[in-house]
Design brief:
Largest sheet: 8 strands, parallel
Shape: globular
Number of strands: 27
Strand order of the largest sheet: 1-6-9-12-15-18-23-26
Number of domains: 1
Length: 197
Amino acid sequence: MRKSVLVLAVFTALTLLATASFAETYECTRTLPYTVNGIIKPPNQIITSDLHVPAGKTCELHWITVTGNVKVEGTLISFNSTFQGNVTVVGGQITFENGNGLVGNLTITGSPYDNSIGCPNNTNVIGGNLTVVGNSGGFYACQTTVGHYDANNNVAGGSVVVSENAGRVDLGGITLLQNLVCGGNAWYAPNQPSQCN
């Protein structure tokens, strides 16, 4: 009897841990924020966890703050939102418009779609590094600053790697604080930084 109780207690604890872990990721498959019975969701337009956009789904954010990391396997469209972690696009698509702020890194890999950051209206900021590697779709950066200065006015982040992409690459509107590695891409738009010519 004692052994059965112990097994049940362990099983219950593991179930609770698994449930807690699952609850830490917000699955986004719609436009946010939205209103239900007069209540705005998510509360205060803040997602206090990781965010996941599943394959085949579209998540559209307007003035949303995400405190965790973001994984995009579907389509993420973002307007005037803030991302306090990293954003990783794996086989999905991302469109940042009208002044988004990303504290961490942005990585786009294996995407068959066109991905774009910036324009119109406001500058988008990527505080960390930008990596765009191995995509068959195009990549467009306009009015985008990559990198930031720390409290001691030292450059932190700001490296950009854009390589081995089959689609059109346009980095004409990017401002970076550190180095740019650009190579093995199938074709570039006109007026690219000298490292890409």
